[in-house]
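Hi all, posting the design record for the shared folder.

TITLE: backbone redesign
STEP: 1 of 1
STRUCTURE INPUT:
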Protein backbone atom coordinates (compact mmCIF):
# COMPACT_ATOMS: atom_id res chain seq x y z
CA UNK A 1 0.00 0.00 0.00
CA UNK A 2 1.31 3.38 -0.89
CA UNK A 3 0.57 6.91 0.12
CA UNK A 4 -0.90 7.57 -3.30
CA UNK A 5 -3.80 5.31 -2.39
CA UNK A 6 -4.31 6.71 1.03
CA UNK A 7 -7.09 9.13 1.84
CA UNK A 8 -5.88 10.25 5.22
CA UNK A 9 -4.97 13.90 4.91
CA UNK A 10 -1.26 14.39 4.50
CA UNK A 11 -0.57 16.01 7.83
CA UNK A 12 -2.23 13.24 9.70
CA UNK A 13 -0.52 10.51 7.72
CA UNK A 14 2.81 12.04 8.28
CA UNK A 15 2.21 12.33 11.97
CA UNK A 16 0.95 8.77 12.07
CA UNK A 17 4.13 7.67 10.38
CA UNK A 18 6.19 9.50 12.93
CA UNK A 19 4.32 7.85 15.75
CA UNK A 20 4.73 4.43 14.31
CA UNK A 21 8.10 5.00 12.81
CA UNK A 22 10.13 1.97 13.48
CA UNK A 23 13.65 1.32 12.47
CA UNK A 24 13.34 -2.34 13.17
CA UNK A 25 15.52 -4.29 10.82
CA UNK A 26 14.22 -7.46 9.42
CA UNK A 27 16.27 -10.35 10.53
CA UNK A 28 16.47 -13.29 8.28
CA UNK A 29 17.59 -16.73 8.96
CA UNK A 30 20.93 -17.39 7.44
CA UNK A 31 19.99 -20.49 5.54
CA UNK A 32 23.24 -21.94 6.70
CA UNK A 33 22.73 -25.37 8.06
CA UNK A 34 24.11 -25.87 11.52
CA UNK A 35 26.80 -28.44 11.54
CA UNK A 36 28.57 -30.12 14.41
CA UNK A 37 31.73 -30.10 12.38
CA UNK A 38 31.62 -26.32 12.26
CA UNK A 39 32.86 -26.17 15.81
CA UNK A 40 36.11 -27.86 14.81
CA UNK A 41 36.98 -26.18 11.58
CA UNK A 42 37.35 -22.55 10.64
CA UNK A 43 37.70 -22.83 6.92
CA UNK A 44 38.70 -19.54 5.33
CA UNK A 45 37.89 -17.93 2.08
CA UNK A 46 38.48 -19.84 -1.13
CA UNK A 47 40.85 -18.01 -3.42
CA UNK A 48 38.72 -18.25 -6.56
CA UNK A 49 35.74 -16.84 -4.73
CA UNK A 50 37.83 -14.05 -3.23
CA UNK A 51 39.05 -13.11 -6.70
CA UNK A 52 35.44 -13.15 -7.94
CA UNK A 53 34.38 -10.82 -5.14
CA UNK A 54 37.27 -8.46 -5.84
CA UNK A 55 36.39 -8.42 -9.54
CA UNK A 56 32.80 -7.68 -8.58
CA UNK A 57 34.02 -4.87 -6.32
CA UNK A 58 36.08 -3.36 -9.13
CA UNK A 59 32.90 -3.08 -11.20
CA UNK A 60 31.26 -1.06 -8.47
CA UNK A 61 31.61 2.60 -7.67
CA UNK A 62 31.73 2.80 -3.89
CA UNK A 63 31.80 6.49 -3.09
CA UNK A 64 30.39 5.81 0.36
CA UNK A 65 33.10 3.33 1.26
CA UNK A 66 30.58 0.65 2.09
CA UNK A 67 33.08 -2.02 1.08
CA UNK A 68 36.07 -0.63 2.93
CA UNK A 69 36.45 -3.91 4.80
CA UNK A 70 36.89 -5.79 1.52
CA UNK A 71 40.68 -6.07 1.81
CA UNK A 72 42.99 -8.87 2.87
CA UNK A 73 42.76 -12.59 2.31
CA UNK A 74 39.87 -13.66 4.46
CA UNK A 75 36.87 -12.67 2.36
CA UNK A 76 34.71 -14.52 4.87
CA UNK A 77 35.24 -11.69 7.33
CA UNK A 78 34.33 -8.93 4.85
CA UNK A 79 31.25 -6.88 5.53
CA UNK A 80 28.13 -8.45 4.03
CA UNK A 81 29.87 -11.74 3.23
CA UNK A 82 29.15 -14.96 5.06
CA UNK A 83 30.82 -18.27 4.37
CA UNK A 84 30.26 -21.84 5.31
CA UNK A 85 32.39 -22.55 8.38
CA UNK A 86 32.86 -26.03 7.06
CA UNK A 87 33.89 -25.40 3.48
CA UNK A 88 34.73 -21.70 3.37
CA UNK A 89 32.38 -21.25 0.43
CA UNK A 90 30.55 -17.93 0.22
CA UNK A 91 26.93 -18.62 1.11
CA UNK A 92 25.54 -15.18 1.69
CA UNK A 93 26.05 -11.75 0.20
CA UNK A 94 24.03 -9.06 1.91
CA UNK A 95 24.72 -5.68 0.34
CA UNK A 96 21.36 -4.12 1.05
CA UNK A 97 21.71 -0.36 1.26
CA UNK A 98 22.13 0.47 4.95
CA UNK A 99 19.94 3.58 4.76
CA UNK A 100 16.49 2.13 3.95
CA UNK A 101 13.95 3.65 6.33
CA UNK A 102 10.65 1.79 6.67
CA UNK A 103 7.37 3.33 7.89
CA UNK A 104 5.08 1.02 9.76
CA UNK A 105 1.50 1.30 10.97
CA UNK A 106 1.45 -1.42 13.56
CA UNK A 107 2.87 -4.40 11.72
CA UNK A 108 2.04 -3.09 8.27
CA UNK A 109 4.80 -1.62 6.18
CA UNK A 110 3.33 1.51 4.62
CA UNK A 111 6.26 2.97 2.82
CA UNK A 112 10.05 3.01 2.57
CA UNK A 113 12.57 5.52 1.42
CA UNK A 114 16.30 5.92 1.22
CA UNK A 115 17.62 7.99 4.10
CA UNK A 116 20.67 10.19 4.08
CA UNK A 117 24.20 9.07 4.58
CA UNK A 118 26.54 6.54 3.06
CA UNK A 119 23.86 4.69 1.20
CA UNK A 120 24.46 3.16 -2.15
CA UNK A 121 26.76 1.27 -4.39
CA UNK A 122 26.68 2.31 -8.04
CA UNK A 123 28.45 1.09 -11.14
CA UNK A 124 27.67 -2.32 -12.66
CA UNK A 125 27.37 -5.91 -11.55
CA UNK A 126 30.29 -7.93 -12.83
CA UNK A 127 29.50 -11.45 -14.09
CA UNK A 128 32.28 -12.75 -11.83
CA UNK A 129 29.54 -13.06 -9.25
CA UNK A 130 28.47 -16.21 -11.10
CA UNK A 131 31.62 -17.81 -9.68
CA UNK A 132 29.91 -17.98 -6.26
CA UNK A 133 28.12 -21.21 -7.06
CA UNK A 134 27.27 -21.98 -3.42
CA UNK A 135 25.59 -18.66 -2.82
CA UNK A 136 22.15 -19.12 -1.34
CA UNK A 137 21.37 -15.56 -0.28
CA UNK A 138 21.82 -12.43 -2.37
CA UNK A 139 20.50 -9.02 -1.38
CA UNK A 140 21.40 -5.99 -3.49
CA UNK A 141 18.28 -4.01 -2.65
CA UNK A 142 18.14 -0.23 -2.88
CA UNK A 143 21.54 0.21 -4.49
CA UNK A 144 21.79 2.36 -7.57
CA UNK A 145 22.82 0.59 -10.75
CA UNK A 146 21.25 3.37 -12.81
CA UNK A 147 18.18 1.27 -13.44
CA UNK A 148 20.04 -1.26 -15.53
CA UNK A 149 18.38 -4.56 -16.46
CA UNK A 150 18.66 -7.56 -14.19
CA UNK A 151 21.73 -9.47 -15.43
CA UNK A 152 20.83 -12.80 -17.02
CA UNK A 153 23.75 -14.57 -15.38
CA UNK A 154 22.02 -14.34 -12.01
CA UNK A 155 19.96 -17.25 -13.31
CA UNK A 156 23.03 -19.45 -13.05
CA UNK A 157 23.34 -19.08 -9.26
CA UNK A 158 21.41 -22.26 -8.90
CA UNK A 159 21.68 -22.57 -5.12
CA UNK A 160 19.96 -19.27 -4.43
CA UNK A 161 17.16 -19.53 -1.92
CA UNK A 162 16.78 -15.78 -1.36
CA UNK A 163 17.12 -13.08 -4.02
CA UNK A 164 16.31 -9.50 -3.16
CA UNK A 165 16.65 -7.00 -6.00
CA UNK A 166 14.03 -4.59 -4.76
CA UNK A 167 14.39 -1.02 -6.01
CA UNK A 168 17.48 -1.76 -8.05
CA UNK A 169 16.62 -2.59 -11.63
CA UNK A 170 14.38 -1.49 -14.48
CA UNK A 171 14.07 -2.83 -18.02
CA UNK A 172 13.05 -6.41 -18.76
CA UNK A 173 12.97 -9.15 -16.17
CA UNK A 174 14.89 -12.07 -17.73
CA UNK A 175 13.28 -15.51 -17.87
CA UNK A 176 16.69 -16.86 -16.77
CA UNK A 177 15.50 -16.39 -13.21
CA UNK A 178 13.41 -19.49 -13.91
CA UNK A 179 16.61 -21.54 -13.60
CA UNK A 180 16.80 -20.80 -9.87
CA UNK A 181 15.02 -23.97 -8.90
CA UNK A 182 15.75 -23.65 -5.17
CA UNK A 183 14.45 -20.14 -4.86
CA UNK A 184 11.99 -19.45 -2.03
CA UNK A 185 12.13 -15.65 -1.88
CA UNK A 186 12.09 -13.42 -4.94
CA UNK A 187 11.73 -9.70 -4.28
CA UNK A 188 11.67 -7.46 -7.35
CA UNK A 189 9.49 -4.79 -5.74
CA UNK A 190 10.00 -1.34 -7.20
CA UNK A 191 8.51 0.57 -4.33
CA UNK A 192 10.60 3.61 -5.02
CA UNK A 193 7.95 5.60 -6.85
CA UNK A 194 10.33 7.87 -8.65
CA UNK A 195 11.80 5.01 -10.63
CA UNK A 196 8.55 4.98 -12.51
CA UNK A 197 8.86 8.66 -13.34
CA UNK A 198 12.54 8.58 -14.09
CA UNK A 199 12.95 5.63 -16.38
CA UNK A 200 9.86 3.42 -16.43
CA UNK A 201 9.58 0.47 -14.15
CA UNK A 202 10.71 -3.05 -14.95
CA UNK A 203 8.62 -5.08 -17.34
CA UNK A 204 7.66 -8.70 -17.06
CA UNK A 205 6.64 -10.02 -20.47
CA UNK A 206 5.61 -13.41 -19.26
CA UNK A 207 5.73 -15.37 -16.05
CA UNK A 208 5.96 -18.85 -17.51
CA UNK A 209 9.45 -19.16 -16.05
CA UNK A 210 7.85 -19.32 -12.60
CA UNK A 211 7.20 -22.98 -13.34
CA UNK A 212 10.92 -23.49 -12.69
CA UNK A 213 10.55 -22.19 -9.13
CA UNK A 214 8.30 -24.76 -7.44
CA UNK A 215 9.45 -23.89 -3.89
CA UNK A 216 8.67 -20.19 -4.13
CA UNK A 217 7.10 -18.83 -0.94
CA UNK A 218 7.56 -15.12 -1.45
CA UNK A 219 7.01 -13.32 -4.76
CA UNK A 220 6.97 -9.55 -4.95
CA UNK A 221 6.62 -7.83 -8.31
CA UNK A 222 4.89 -4.70 -7.02
CA UNK A 223 5.51 -1.55 -8.98
CA UNK A 224 6.59 -3.34 -12.16
CA UNK A 225 4.56 -3.71 -15.32
CA UNK A 226 3.03 -7.12 -15.83
CA UNK A 227 0.71 -5.68 -18.48
CA UNK A 228 1.98 -7.96 -21.25
CA UNK A 229 1.84 -11.19 -19.29
CA UNK A 230 -1.68 -12.24 -20.24
CA UNK A 231 -1.32 -15.58 -18.48
CA UNK A 232 0.08 -14.15 -15.25
CA UNK A 233 -2.53 -15.82 -13.08
CA UNK A 234 -2.10 -19.23 -14.71
CA UNK A 235 1.64 -19.06 -14.07
CA UNK A 236 1.34 -17.92 -10.48
CA UNK A 237 -1.53 -20.28 -9.71
CA UNK A 238 0.84 -23.27 -9.92
CA UNK A 239 2.92 -22.09 -6.96
CA UNK A 240 1.54 -24.35 -4.27
CA UNK A 241 3.82 -23.12 -1.44
CA UNK A 242 3.22 -19.43 -2.01
CA UNK A 243 2.75 -17.43 1.20
CA UNK A 244 3.40 -13.87 0.04
CA UNK A 245 2.22 -12.35 -3.24
CA UNK A 246 2.87 -8.68 -3.91
CA UNK A 247 1.40 -7.41 -7.17
CA UNK A 248 0.50 -3.83 -6.26
CA UNK A 249 0.42 -1.40 -9.18
CA UNK A 250 1.41 -3.97 -11.78
CA UNK A 251 -1.12 -3.01 -14.49
CA UNK A 252 -2.29 -6.60 -14.42
CA UNK A 253 -4.37 -7.65 -17.40
CA UNK A 254 -7.85 -9.03 -16.79
CA UNK A 255 -7.67 -12.67 -15.82
CA UNK A 256 -9.88 -15.72 -16.03
CA UNK A 257 -12.26 -15.28 -13.12
CA UNK A 258 -13.02 -18.99 -12.75
CA UNK A 259 -9.43 -20.17 -12.37
CA UNK A 260 -8.52 -22.12 -9.23
CA UNK A 261 -5.17 -21.45 -7.61
CA UNK A 262 -2.92 -23.99 -5.89
CA UNK A 263 -2.00 -21.57 -3.11
CA UNK A 264 -5.48 -20.94 -1.73
CA UNK A 265 -4.63 -22.60 1.57
CA UNK A 266 -1.00 -21.38 1.88
CA UNK A 267 -1.22 -17.69 0.96
CA UNK A 268 -0.86 -15.34 3.94
CA UNK A 269 -0.24 -11.99 2.28
CA UNK A 270 -1.84 -10.64 -0.89
CA UNK A 271 -1.52 -7.13 -2.27
CA UNK A 272 -3.27 -6.41 -5.57
CA UNK A 273 -3.86 -2.76 -4.84
CA UNK A 274 -4.19 -0.51 -7.87
CA UNK A 275 -4.93 -3.14 -10.52
CA UNK A 276 -8.29 -3.61 -12.20
CA UNK A 277 -8.52 -7.33 -12.62
CA UNK A 278 -12.23 -8.03 -12.80
CA UNK A 279 -14.54 -8.59 -15.70
CA UNK A 280 -18.30 -8.32 -15.82
CA UNK A 281 -19.63 -8.04 -12.32
CA UNK A 282 -18.10 -11.11 -10.76
CA UNK A 283 -15.16 -11.10 -8.43
CA UNK A 284 -12.61 -13.73 -9.46
CA UNK A 285 -13.26 -16.97 -7.56
CA UNK A 286 -9.76 -17.41 -6.28
CA UNK A 287 -9.99 -14.18 -4.28
CA UNK A 288 -13.01 -15.46 -2.39
CA UNK A 289 -11.47 -18.71 -1.32
CA UNK A 290 -8.21 -17.87 0.42
CA UNK A 291 -8.35 -19.53 3.81
CA UNK A 292 -5.03 -18.52 5.44
CA UNK A 293 -4.63 -14.95 4.30
CA UNK A 294 -4.04 -12.47 7.09
CA UNK A 295 -3.24 -9.43 4.92
CA UNK A 296 -5.58 -8.75 2.02
CA UNK A 297 -5.27 -5.56 0.03
CA UNK A 298 -7.77 -5.38 -2.82
CA UNK A 299 -8.17 -1.62 -2.98
CA UNK A 300 -9.10 -0.32 -6.41
CA UNK A 301 -9.26 -3.85 -7.79
CA UNK A 302 -12.93 -4.08 -8.77
CA UNK A 303 -13.47 -0.44 -9.56
CA UNK A 304 -13.63 -0.77 -13.32
CA UNK A 305 -16.27 -3.42 -13.61
CA UNK A 306 -18.35 -2.92 -16.71
CA UNK A 307 -21.69 -2.56 -14.96
CA UNK A 308 -20.16 -0.50 -12.14
CA UNK A 309 -20.98 -1.96 -8.81
CA UNK A 310 -20.37 -5.14 -6.87
CA UNK A 311 -21.68 -5.86 -3.41
CA UNK A 312 -19.42 -6.59 -0.48
CA UNK A 313 -17.87 -10.02 -1.10
CA UNK A 314 -19.08 -11.69 2.09
CA UNK A 315 -17.36 -14.94 1.04
CA UNK A 316 -14.05 -13.28 1.84
CA UNK A 317 -14.94 -12.92 5.49
CA UNK A 318 -16.89 -16.16 5.74
CA UNK A 319 -14.10 -18.29 4.21
CA UNK A 320 -11.28 -16.71 6.14
CA UNK A 321 -11.34 -16.07 9.86
CA UNK A 322 -7.59 -15.25 9.96
CA UNK A 323 -7.88 -11.81 8.39
CA UNK A 324 -5.93 -9.15 10.24
CA UNK A 325 -5.76 -6.48 7.53
CA UNK A 326 -8.55 -5.96 5.03
CA UNK A 327 -8.46 -3.17 2.47
CA UNK A 328 -11.34 -2.96 -0.01
CA UNK A 329 -11.30 0.78 -0.62
CA UNK A 330 -12.33 2.36 -3.94
CA UNK A 331 -14.17 -0.64 -5.32
CA UNK A 332 -17.56 0.92 -6.17
CA UNK A 333 -19.13 -1.53 -3.74
CA UNK A 334 -22.85 -1.02 -3.13
CA UNK A 335 -25.23 -2.47 -0.63
CA UNK A 336 -25.13 -2.86 3.11
CA UNK A 337 -22.08 -3.01 5.30
CA UNK A 338 -21.54 -6.72 5.96
CA UNK A 339 -23.07 -8.10 9.12
CA UNK A 340 -20.47 -10.76 9.74
CA UNK A 341 -17.49 -8.57 10.49
CA UNK A 342 -17.78 -9.35 14.16
CA UNK A 343 -16.80 -12.95 13.35
CA UNK A 344 -13.27 -11.80 12.59
CA UNK A 345 -11.19 -12.30 15.71
CA UNK A 346 -7.85 -11.09 14.36
CA UNK A 347 -8.85 -8.02 12.38
CA UNK A 348 -6.92 -4.89 13.31
CA UNK A 349 -7.36 -2.78 10.17
CA UNK A 350 -10.62 -2.47 8.26
CA UNK A 351 -10.51 -0.13 5.29
CA UNK A 352 -13.70 0.21 3.31
CA UNK A 353 -13.51 3.91 2.42
CA UNK A 354 -14.48 5.26 -0.99
CA UNK A 355 -17.33 2.88 -1.74
CA UNK A 356 -21.13 3.29 -1.74
CA UNK A 357 -21.89 1.16 1.28
CA UNK A 358 -25.08 1.85 3.22
CA UNK A 359 -26.43 0.80 6.60
CA UNK A 360 -25.45 1.64 10.13
CA UNK A 361 -22.05 1.08 11.76
CA UNK A 362 -23.78 -0.35 14.77
CA UNK A 363 -25.24 -3.17 12.70
CA UNK A 364 -21.81 -4.10 11.35
CA UNK A 365 -19.79 -3.79 14.54
CA UNK A 366 -22.50 -3.96 17.08
CA UNK A 367 -22.28 -7.43 18.55
CA UNK A 368 -21.29 -6.76 22.16
CA UNK A 369 -19.74 -10.22 22.49
CA UNK A 370 -17.63 -9.98 19.37
CA UNK A 371 -13.89 -10.44 19.59
CA UNK A 372 -13.46 -7.67 17.02
CA UNK A 373 -13.85 -5.12 19.79
CA UNK A 374 -10.54 -6.20 21.28
CA UNK A 375 -8.56 -6.33 18.06
CA UNK A 376 -9.75 -3.47 15.85
CA UNK A 377 -7.32 -0.54 15.77
CA UNK A 378 -7.95 1.10 12.42
CA UNK A 379 -11.43 1.75 11.03
CA UNK A 380 -11.79 3.58 7.72
CA UNK A 381 -15.33 3.91 6.39
CA UNK A 382 -14.89 7.36 4.86
CA UNK A 383 -16.81 8.43 1.78
CA UNK A 384 -19.64 5.91 1.91
CA UNK A 385 -23.36 6.31 2.56
CA UNK A 386 -23.40 5.13 6.12
CA UNK A 387 -26.31 6.46 8.15
CA UNK A 388 -27.71 6.26 11.64
CA UNK A 389 -26.17 7.33 14.90
CA UNK A 390 -22.92 6.58 16.64
CA UNK A 391 -24.41 4.13 19.08
CA UNK A 392 -23.19 2.77 22.32
CA UNK A 393 -21.48 -0.19 20.62
CA UNK A 394 -18.36 1.68 19.60
CA UNK A 395 -17.65 2.33 23.28
CA UNK A 396 -16.38 -1.23 23.60
CA UNK A 397 -13.69 -0.87 20.94
CA UNK A 398 -11.03 0.01 23.45
CA UNK A 399 -8.08 -0.40 21.11
CA UNK A 400 -9.22 1.82 18.26
CA UNK A 401 -6.50 4.24 17.25
CA UNK A 402 -8.03 5.60 14.07
CA UNK A 403 -11.67 6.27 13.22
CA UNK A 404 -12.37 7.72 9.77
CA UNK A 405 -16.07 8.26 9.13
CA UNK A 406 -16.01 11.51 7.20
CA UNK A 407 -18.27 11.99 4.20
CA UNK A 408 -21.17 9.79 5.31
CA UNK A 409 -24.68 10.57 6.53
CA UNK A 410 -24.23 10.00 10.23
CA UNK A 411 -26.69 11.86 12.44
CA UNK A 412 -27.26 12.50 16.09
CA UNK A 413 -24.90 13.66 18.80
CA UNK A 414 -21.20 13.01 19.29
CA UNK A 415 -21.16 10.37 22.05
CA UNK A 416 -19.95 11.53 25.47
CA UNK A 417 -18.18 8.22 26.03
CA UNK A 418 -15.44 8.95 23.47
CA UNK A 419 -12.73 9.39 26.15
CA UNK A 420 -13.25 5.74 27.03
CA UNK A 421 -11.59 4.98 23.70
CA UNK A 422 -8.34 5.72 25.38
CA UNK A 423 -6.12 4.59 22.50
CA UNK A 424 -7.73 6.91 19.97
CA UNK A 425 -5.23 9.06 18.09
CA UNK A 426 -7.20 10.18 15.06
CA UNK A 427 -10.90 10.96 14.82
CA UNK A 428 -12.43 12.23 11.59
CA UNK A 429 -16.19 12.78 11.65
CA UNK A 430 -16.24 15.64 9.12
CA UNK A 431 -18.91 16.03 6.43
CA UNK A 432 -21.76 14.27 8.22
CA UNK A 433 -24.99 15.46 9.83
CA UNK A 434 -23.94 15.35 13.47
CA UNK A 435 -26.05 17.54 15.74
CA UNK A 436 -25.88 18.84 19.31
CA UNK A 437 -22.86 20.28 21.03
CA UNK A 438 -19.30 19.00 21.30
CA UNK A 439 -19.19 17.13 24.61
CA UNK A 440 -16.73 18.60 27.09
CA UNK A 441 -15.48 15.11 27.78
CA UNK A 442 -13.60 15.25 24.49
CA UNK A 443 -11.11 17.47 26.30
CA UNK A 444 -9.83 14.44 28.22
CA UNK A 445 -8.53 12.59 25.18
CA UNK A 446 -4.87 13.01 25.83
CA UNK A 447 -3.71 10.67 23.01
CA UNK A 448 -5.74 12.37 20.30
CA UNK A 449 -3.58 14.21 17.80
CA UNK A 450 -6.00 14.60 14.91
CA UNK A 451 -9.57 15.81 15.42
CA UNK A 452 -11.90 16.80 12.57
CA UNK A 453 -15.55 17.62 13.23
CA UNK A 454 -16.00 20.12 10.40
CA UNK A 455 -19.01 20.40 8.08
CA UNK A 456 -21.64 19.08 10.44
CA UNK A 457 -24.66 20.66 12.13
CA UNK A 458 -23.00 21.08 15.53
CA UNK A 459 -24.23 23.92 17.77
CA UNK A 460 -23.23 25.46 21.07
CA UNK A 461 -20.16 26.94 22.65
CA UNK A 462 -16.60 25.61 22.64
CA UNK A 463 -14.66 26.62 25.76
CA UNK A 464 -11.22 25.89 27.16
CA UNK A 465 -12.75 22.86 28.90
CA UNK A 466 -13.19 21.18 25.52
CA UNK A 467 -9.49 21.50 24.91
CA UNK A 468 -8.18 21.15 28.46
CA UNK A 469 -6.28 17.89 28.31
CA UNK A 470 -5.84 17.40 24.57
CA UNK A 471 -2.13 17.38 25.16
CA UNK A 472 -1.23 15.53 21.95
CA UNK A 473 -3.37 17.54 19.56
CA UNK A 474 -1.66 18.79 16.40
CA UNK A 475 -4.62 19.15 14.03
CA UNK A 476 -8.05 20.57 14.88
CA UNK A 477 -10.83 21.37 12.42
CA UNK A 478 -14.30 22.30 13.73
CA UNK A 479 -15.14 24.67 10.88
CA UNK A 480 -18.46 24.87 9.03
CA UNK A 481 -20.70 24.24 12.01
CA UNK A 482 -22.74 26.67 14.11
CA UNK A 483 -20.31 26.76 17.00
CA UNK A 484 -19.28 29.74 19.06
CA UNK A 485 -15.73 29.62 20.40
CA UNK A 486 -15.23 31.33 23.78
CA UNK A 487 -11.82 30.60 25.20
CA UNK A 488 -10.58 32.38 28.29
CA UNK A 489 -7.56 34.31 26.94
CA UNK A 490 -5.64 33.61 30.16
CA UNK A 491 -5.68 29.87 29.55
CA UNK A 492 -2.50 28.55 28.04
CA UNK A 493 -3.26 25.59 25.78
CA UNK A 494 -1.46 22.31 26.37
CA UNK A 495 -1.05 21.49 22.71
CA UNK A 496 0.95 22.59 19.74
CA UNK A 497 -1.18 22.80 16.63
CA UNK A 498 0.35 22.72 13.20
C1 LIG B 1 37.60 -20.80 15.12
O1 LIG B 1 37.32 -19.43 15.32
C2 LIG B 1 36.82 -19.17 16.62
C3 LIG B 1 36.40 -17.70 16.71
O2 LIG B 1 37.10 -16.92 15.82
C4 LIG B 1 37.86 -19.53 17.67
O3 LIG B 1 37.36 -19.30 18.98
C5 LIG B 1 38.19 -20.99 17.51
O4 LIG B 1 39.24 -21.32 18.40
C6 LIG B 1 38.63 -21.33 16.09
N1 LIG B 1 38.75 -22.76 15.94
C7 LIG B 1 39.80 -23.33 15.33
C8 LIG B 1 39.78 -24.82 15.24
O5 LIG B 1 40.66 -22.67 14.82
C1 LIG C 1 30.45 8.37 5.09
O1 LIG C 1 31.59 7.58 5.35
C2 LIG C 1 32.78 8.34 5.56
C3 LIG C 1 33.93 7.38 5.79
O2 LIG C 1 33.80 6.24 5.02
C4 LIG C 1 32.62 9.23 6.76
O3 LIG C 1 33.78 10.02 6.91
C5 LIG C 1 31.41 10.13 6.57
O4 LIG C 1 31.18 10.87 7.74
C6 LIG C 1 30.19 9.29 6.27
N1 LIG C 1 29.07 10.16 5.97
C7 LIG C 1 27.86 9.99 6.52
C8 LIG C 1 26.83 11.01 6.14
O5 LIG C 1 27.58 9.05 7.22
C1 LIG D 1 14.13 -6.94 0.42
O1 LIG D 1 14.78 -5.80 0.93
C2 LIG D 1 13.93 -4.75 1.36
C3 LIG D 1 14.76 -3.61 1.89
O2 LIG D 1 15.76 -3.27 1.06
C4 LIG D 1 13.03 -5.26 2.44
O3 LIG D 1 12.12 -4.25 2.80
C5 LIG D 1 12.26 -6.47 1.96
O4 LIG D 1 11.49 -6.99 3.01
C6 LIG D 1 13.22 -7.53 1.46
N1 LIG D 1 12.46 -8.63 0.91
C7 LIG D 1 12.40 -9.83 1.46
C8 LIG D 1 11.64 -10.88 0.75
O5 LIG D 1 13.00 -10.10 2.49
C1 LIG E 1 22.34 6.88 -9.43
O1 LIG E 1 23.55 6.84 -10.14
C2 LIG E 1 23.55 7.69 -11.27
C3 LIG E 1 24.86 7.46 -12.02
O2 LIG E 1 25.89 7.12 -11.18
C4 LIG E 1 23.40 9.14 -10.80
O3 LIG E 1 23.37 9.99 -11.90
C5 LIG E 1 22.10 9.26 -10.03
O4 LIG E 1 21.97 10.56 -9.51
C6 LIG E 1 22.05 8.27 -8.90
N1 LIG E 1 20.72 8.33 -8.29
C7 LIG E 1 20.57 8.33 -6.97
C8 LIG E 1 19.16 8.39 -6.49
O5 LIG E 1 21.48 8.26 -6.20
C1 LIG F 1 18.41 -20.59 -18.09
O1 LIG F 1 17.21 -20.12 -18.65
C2 LIG F 1 17.32 -19.61 -19.97
C3 LIG F 1 15.99 -19.03 -20.39
O2 LIG F 1 14.92 -19.67 -19.79
C4 LIG F 1 17.83 -20.66 -20.89
O3 LIG F 1 17.98 -20.17 -22.20
C5 LIG F 1 19.16 -21.16 -20.38
O4 LIG F 1 19.60 -22.22 -21.16
C6 LIG F 1 19.10 -21.58 -18.96
N1 LIG F 1 20.45 -21.81 -18.46
C7 LIG F 1 20.80 -22.84 -17.74
C8 LIG F 1 22.22 -22.91 -17.30
O5 LIG F 1 20.01 -23.71 -17.43
C1 LIG G 1 -2.04 -27.25 -9.28
O1 LIG G 1 -3.40 -27.62 -9.40
C2 LIG G 1 -3.69 -28.29 -10.60
C3 LIG G 1 -5.19 -28.50 -10.71
O2 LIG G 1 -5.85 -28.17 -9.54
C4 LIG G 1 -2.94 -29.61 -10.63
O3 LIG G 1 -3.20 -30.28 -11.84
C5 LIG G 1 -1.46 -29.34 -10.51
O4 LIG G 1 -0.75 -30.53 -10.40
C6 LIG G 1 -1.16 -28.49 -9.31
N1 LIG G 1 0.25 -28.10 -9.35
C7 LIG G 1 1.03 -28.13 -8.30
C8 LIG G 1 2.44 -27.72 -8.53
O5 LIG G 1 0.64 -28.45 -7.19
C1 LIG H 1 -12.70 -23.21 -2.76
O1 LIG H 1 -11.66 -24.15 -2.60
C2 LIG H 1 -12.08 -25.49 -2.55
C3 LIG H 1 -10.87 -26.36 -2.33
O2 LIG H 1 -9.99 -25.78 -1.41
C4 LIG H 1 -12.79 -25.84 -3.83
O3 LIG H 1 -13.28 -27.16 -3.74
C5 LIG H 1 -13.95 -24.89 -4.08
O4 LIG H 1 -14.53 -25.13 -5.32
C6 LIG H 1 -13.46 -23.46 -4.04
N1 LIG H 1 -14.58 -22.55 -4.17
C7 LIG H 1 -14.55 -21.48 -4.94
C8 LIG H 1 -15.76 -20.60 -4.92
O5 LIG H 1 -13.60 -21.21 -5.64
C1 LIG I 1 -22.21 -15.22 8.57
O1 LIG I 1 -21.35 -16.30 8.93
C2 LIG I 1 -22.02 -17.52 9.17
C3 LIG I 1 -21.01 -18.56 9.61
O2 LIG I 1 -19.77 -18.04 9.87
C4 LIG I 1 -22.73 -17.96 7.92
O3 LIG I 1 -23.43 -19.15 8.16
C5 LIG I 1 -23.69 -16.88 7.44
O4 LIG I 1 -24.27 -17.24 6.22
C6 LIG I 1 -22.97 -15.56 7.29
N1 LIG I 1 -23.90 -14.51 6.97
C7 LIG I 1 -23.75 -13.73 5.91
C8 LIG I 1 -24.78 -12.65 5.73
O5 LIG I 1 -22.85 -13.87 5.12
C1 LIG J 1 -28.02 16.16 6.10
O1 LIG J 1 -29.38 16.34 6.31
C2 LIG J 1 -30.04 17.13 5.32
C3 LIG J 1 -31.45 17.38 5.75
O2 LIG J 1 -32.05 16.21 6.22
C4 LIG J 1 -29.94 16.40 3.99
O3 LIG J 1 -30.51 17.16 2.98
C5 LIG J 1 -28.47 16.16 3.68
O4 LIG J 1 -28.37 15.40 2.51
C6 LIG J 1 -27.77 15.45 4.80
N1 LIG J 1 -26.37 15.42 4.53
C7 LIG J 1 -25.66 14.33 4.65
C8 LIG J 1 -24.19 14.44 4.37
O5 LIG J 1 -26.15 13.27 4.95
C1 LIG K 1 -7.18 17.11 33.03
O1 LIG K 1 -6.33 16.12 33.58
C2 LIG K 1 -6.06 16.34 34.96
C3 LIG K 1 -5.03 15.32 35.40
O2 LIG K 1 -5.24 14.13 34.74
C4 LIG K 1 -7.34 16.27 35.76
O3 LIG K 1 -7.08 16.51 37.11
C5 LIG K 1 -8.33 17.29 35.24
O4 LIG K 1 -9.57 17.15 35.88
C6 LIG K 1 -8.52 17.13 33.73
N1 LIG K 1 -9.33 18.22 33.23
C7 LIG K 1 -10.41 18.04 32.49
C8 LIG K 1 -11.16 19.25 32.08
O5 LIG K 1 -10.75 16.93 32.09
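Okay, here is what came back for every position:
SEQUENCE:
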Amino acid sequence: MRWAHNTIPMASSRTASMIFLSFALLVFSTFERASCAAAFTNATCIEREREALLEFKRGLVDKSNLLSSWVGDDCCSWKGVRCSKLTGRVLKLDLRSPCVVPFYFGDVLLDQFLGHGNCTLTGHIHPSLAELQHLNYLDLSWNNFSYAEIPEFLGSLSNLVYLNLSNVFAGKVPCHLGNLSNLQYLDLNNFRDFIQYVSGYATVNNLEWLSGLPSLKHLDLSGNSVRNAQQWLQSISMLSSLQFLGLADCSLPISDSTLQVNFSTSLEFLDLCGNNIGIGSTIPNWLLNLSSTTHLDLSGVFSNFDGGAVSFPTEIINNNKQLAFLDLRYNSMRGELPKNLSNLCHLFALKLGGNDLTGGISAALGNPFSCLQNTLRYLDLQGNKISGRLGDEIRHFKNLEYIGLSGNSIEGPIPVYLPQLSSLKELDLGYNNLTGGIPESIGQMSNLFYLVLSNNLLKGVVTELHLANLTSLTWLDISSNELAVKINPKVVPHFNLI
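COMMENT: The first strand starts at residue 60 and ends at 61.
Let me know if anyone wants the other runs.
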